[in-house]
Design a protein that fits this description.
binds flavin-adenine dinucleotide, alpha+beta, two-stranded antiparallel sheet, seven-stranded mixed β-sheet, about 10% strand
Length: about 575
């Protein structure tokens, strides 16, 4: 049954409805998640998804609005002049912090779920997707806490991992601690090998001290910060860097004497969460990995962060769409509800298709990430390509969607009573941190030219598409054919990259990033549609995605959208829910 838009009123209500549940009302999320999580595990997790689906539009959204309005403040000295570097948070932020930990937003992958020893990351990211639609700010500390635990678990000496990992991933707020990442210095965040001036020194008792400045540190009050520093006599570039854990407190409970918080950044968005400037002055630190392997270990944390970033980006886009859907139902112009105007409906349809493509991509990447983390060799190459593609493309989607969300609400969408201005402010950091879009394209170039990852990626994507073909692909033929053409194009681009000069290859890299992203997203949507042969909507979304983003002939996409609007516009923009 199709959910019919509700009667419209004159002013759009900025508040989510009392009975909203962002999980239950999202059949595309449910369908896509079921492709990556087995039935028993999903069954065991259903109540968590349902609870968070209810909490997000209610308490989380309210706390997020309050925390955004009341930024954290830094108290550097006590009334008697001692250095304290204390950050005060609004109670709403403390609630957001608590809710993320106990609801599994970053902890689920560390605990059993039904029969599974650990929840698959696709599930954790589905929880994150619900959470980040309400609050993007705390999703950053959530990401870095999981990331610090992930790297320590894999690379730290056992006693160090045993001391910190259980507390990082604990679901108990009383024992939980958080993580941060000290990477960027004044000289830059993109070229870490050249710009890391922070130096490591080993004291006579064998312990380590770090000295330097870290120019951007989000969640700067975290108990655990993962920091890069040049090793004594460390060579130039990334090879000479070691990875350290900088604790906020020493094991006797006293503050780390060489760790100072100089200033909080005055930011455009993600204002609930503090980003600071850190000075390390002989700060105590624990060595995790030394020269040669320190940067590689840190890269694993960065790559997980890029996946989190993709989740946040698609979540922001989903929230913008949600606001547009609400406006479509509630607002009337020229004598009819907005959603009945063809152009407005077209905006919603295009955004819907892009959000579902982004979500399909991100959940698939999460599954490949798990396989890679478990040591499956054939997951390495696809992940090398999926990670920069997802980071680059979903972040751009997040910003574009957040901007569109403002416009869909008209003048109201520009007013801070509505969530749309905050979405736009929060979204703008997504293409910047964790490496800008150009840096992702350069990473893709390395993955193709140096790591020869393209064949592995194409094999992975083709296997997903083959599933679509095997499941019965009636009506999906055009989408499947376009994806196959896309694979040929990607293969040819990969070959060309190997034969052109460096500048040309760099300039081409962004095109390949876009193409690989869209082609794979289209394959995944075709696969989803094939698993739901009776779902015309899923088939139409797959068709539209391939026509708009994969077909080389741009007019095909435009024609497909016009046709879809006439046939299924409302069903695409307002998917039927099981309880409607
Ligand atoms: C709110 C916020 C929070 C942050 N939190 C953290 C944190 O917790 N920890 C941390 O370590 N860092 C953090 N950062 C830093 C962030 O990761 C960096 O700012 C980001 O990676 C970009 O690096 P940069 O600022 O040095 O820009 P630059 O490297 O100077 O880049 C400037 C521009 O040049 C382009 N560019 C650079 N090199 C090339 C090239 N070779 N080819 C083409 N174009 C190029 C970039 O795409 C960009 O457009 C944060 C940043 C922000 C804004």
């Amino acid at each position: 049954m199709v959910t019919r838009p509700m009667p419209s009123s004159s002013v759009i209500d900025p508040r989510p409805g009392d009975d909203e549940n962002w999980y239950r009302e999202d059949p595309p999320l449910q369908q896509l998640l079921a492709l990556h999580v087995d039935e028993a595990t999903l069954g065991a997790a259903e109540h968590r998804l349902d609870d968070l689906g209810e909490l997000a539009p209610a308490d989380l959204d309210r706390w997020a609005r309050e925390a955004d309005r009341h930024e954290p403040t830094l108290e550097r000295r006590s009334p008697t002049g001692e250095r304290v570097d204390r950050v005060d948070f609004h109670p709403a932020y403390e609630n957001l912090r608590l809710a993320a930990r106990i609801n599994g937003v970053f902890t689920a992958s560390w605990h059993e779920m039904g029969e599974a020893e650990r929840a698959p990351r696709a599930l954790t990211f589905a929880l994150g997707y619900l959470y980040a639609q309400a609050e993007a700010g705390y999703y950053c500390p959530a990401c870095m806490t999981d990331g610090a635990a992930f790297v320590l678990d894999r690379h730290a000496p056992e006693p160090l991992a045993e001391r910190f990992v259980p507390r990082l991933v604990s679901r108990d707020p009383d024992e939980g601690i958080e993580g941060a990442m000290y990477l960027t210095e004044k000289e830059g965040g993109s070229d870490v090998g050249a710009s890391t001036r922070t130096r490591a020194r080993q004291a006579e008792d064998g312990t380590w001290r770090l000295t330097g400045e870290k120019w951007f540190a989000s969640n700067c009050t975290a108990e655990v910060a993962m920091a890069l520093a040049r090793m004594p006599d460390g060579e130039e570039g990334t090879e000479g860097l070691g990875l350290f854990l900088v604790p906020r407190h020493l094991s006797n409970g006293s503050p780390n004497p060489g760790l100072h918080l100089e200033r909080l950044k005055d930011k455009l968005g993600v204002q609930s969460m503090p980003t600071g400037e850190i000075v390390l002055d002989e700060a105590h630190a624990h060595l995790v990995q030394g020269a040669g392997s320190g940067f590689k270990a840190m890269a694993e944390m960065v790559n997980l962060s890029r996946l989190y970033n993709a989740v946040a980006s698609v979540a922001v886009a989903r929230r913008a769409l949600r606001e547009g859907q609400r406006a479509g139902r509630q607002r009337e112009t020229f004598g009819q509800p907005l959603h009945e105007h063809a152009l407005f409906l077209r905006d919603l349809v295009e955004l819907t298709v892009d959000v579902e493509g982004g979500l399909a991509f991100t959940l698939d990447q999460a599954e490949v990430f798990d396989r890679w983390a478990e040591g499956e060799e054939d997951a390495r190459a696809p992940l090398r390509i999926l990670t920069p593609c997802a980071k680059a493309m979903t972040a751009k989607l997040g910003v574009a969607a957040a901007s569109e969300g403002c416009e869909l609400l008209g003048g109201q969408g520009y007013i801070e009573e509505y969530v749309t201005p905050r979405l736009l402010r929060d979204a703008q950091v997504l293409p910047i941190w964790e490496g800008t879009t150009n840096i992702q394209a350069l990473d893709l170039l390395r993955a193709v030219a140096r790591d020869r990852a393209l064949p592995g990626f194409l094999a992975h994507s083709s296997a997903r598409l083959a599933e679509a073909e095997a499941e019965g692909h009636e009506g999906l033929e055009p989408a499947i054919a376009r994806v196959r053409e896309g694979y040929e194009r990607i293969e040819q681009a990969g070959e060309r990259l190997a034969s052109v000069d460096r500048d040309t290859a760099e300039a081409m890299a962004i095109d390949l990033t876009r193409d690989a992203y869209h082609v794979h997203a289209a394959a995944l949507l075709a696969r989803r549609a094939a698993h739901h042969p009776d779902d015309d909507r899923a088939r139409e979304v797959a068709h539209l995605y391939a026509a708009r983003h994969v077909a080389e002939d741009r007019s095909l996409g435009r024609r497909a959208v016009r046709q879809a609007l006439a046939d299924h516009g409302t069903e695409i923009a307002y998917p039927a829910t099981s309880h409607s």
